[in-house]
Amino acid sequence: MIRYRKLISFGFVGLILCLLPLLFSPYFISILIIIMLYSIVSLGLGLLIGYAGQISLGHNAFYGIGAYTSAILSFRYGISPWIALVFGMVLTGSIAYLIGKPVLKFRGHMLVIVTTAIGLIVWGLFGEMDFITGGHDGFSRVPRFSIGGFTLIQDIHYYYLVLVALAILFVVASNIAKSRIGSELRTIDLASGGSEVAAETLGINIGKIKTQVFVISAVYASIGGSLYVHYITHIDPSPYSLWTSFMLVVMVVIGGARSLWGPIIGSAFYIGLKQLIAAAVPMKQSVILAGFESVIFSFVFIIVLVLLPDGLVRLPTILYQRWVRKETDEFAKKTSSGC
Amino acid sequence: MDSQYLEVKDVNKDFGGLRAINNLSMEVRKGELLSIIGPNGAGKTTLLNLITGILPINSGEIWFKEQRIDRIPTHLICGLGIARSFQNIQLFTNMSVLENVMIGCHRWMRSTLLEIILSLGRARKERREAFERAMEKLVLLGLEKKANEMPSALALKERKFLGIARALATDPELLLLDEPVGGLTLEEINEVSKKILKMQENGLTILFIEHRMELVMGISERVMVMDLGQKIAEGTFDEIQRNEQVITAYLGKEIE
After folding, report:
1. Could you tell me the residue ranges of all domains in chain A?
2. Chain B residues within 8 A (CB-CB) of chain A?
3. ipTM at complex level
């Protein structure tokens, strides 16, 4: 029965998302695409941060490796973007495996520092290896995806492609979260009450489970990167800088890392807020107010995190609880005054 | 009786300049309930950490069922059939009581990442089996009604029981209990003792650690006493009680 109801609500959300682009302008559709692309990347990062409690600031590396592999293979070697995407996943996964094995022995802030270094190194390589990456200018005319001879040129077509990808990846992430791996990940999330020592004495191979989730999250980032580059059709190092990693972590945390909906809500909130501020500040003044923009931005984030430490995803629950409490409080007041 | 069950041979463990375990040799016989007592800082918990591979030993050997285990990682030692509880319980406070115990069943799970991603039959079947096995253990320790509570909602005794239930879920043959009755009332201690004795009757070998001597009196036939990382006495409870060295360790020596 619960399964049934869940299916209906999923179908409902799906239907809305399918019909959404029909109501709005192409500009709005392009924003929805960007939101969904970041959702894919932050969804994988959410498994790593929210479930396993391992913070990585180096996921711009995997996002970039996916994008560059896709772009280089399809543009320079004429390989189909689909195959390039799969190549990107395999390459990113392998690199994440090799990096993750030694790096995940670090905990807490040490892990943050080490992964930051990885993010910096790989980003630097994108710019320096210009014989293949095109250096800091990059290159354009990255081919688009095509399905059976039909090339996805229009945004609205790409919207549905990314929507399907996000839906599949959401189901995969939710299967992982609900499985044995999901529980094992939570045993090593020290911040929320896990215990690595206890997990080990219960037979859980901590090193393996950490590497697994690191690779999974890297592959998510890679898929996001590939889908991004075939959409933008241009590549240069700037979207894969360390700043992107910070942004992704903010998206995950502000949406709610311990829920799979959290990263998606966080992505929508981040991109939405950015667009709102951009729209509110007229073009002419935006040069002067560029710094001011990020002040508003950061201020909103601090407020949200103070009020909702578990992320925006908890907002409905908290509002509901508050409403229920108000009702009981009023009832108590009424009866006590009557006595 | 098989003396080659768990054997600790000439083991040393240093923490910096401090010798926590000093040339210790001991054995646990199959099917017995051995108590280790000793004052605070005697190295009892350290010994358990060495047996379960949480800490590496500096020298010596540890054998379990004719296999050397002192170089084996902790999660594989669990696979050999050794489980433990912790003095500070170490529950997963981010999971329900039931989920805590289900984690103990994970070492039986074989489903691969691909099966999990696709949510295939085996992954689901294993979850179901783990659920049933975990509920069995909760019933055994009288916690079945609290299955959906969070550990923070449990009383201390229940939390200690949960720690044991979780260890039992790995289906061990040797159970190491680190102060399972510390901080409990006398009545509760009796209850725990009864459960422990019942587990031994069901074929479990148990190593029981406690720092208060009177608590092991009723339940253990063999007692070992540790002080300053060394074994200072071994025998029945009566023998131990009369041992000069043990009295000194616990009460200190009279100044003449």
Report:
1. 26-307
2. 52, 54, 73-79, 83-84, 86, 90-95, 99, 102-104, 106-107, 109, 111, 113, 116-119, 123, 126-127, 130, 166-167, 169-170
3. 0.92
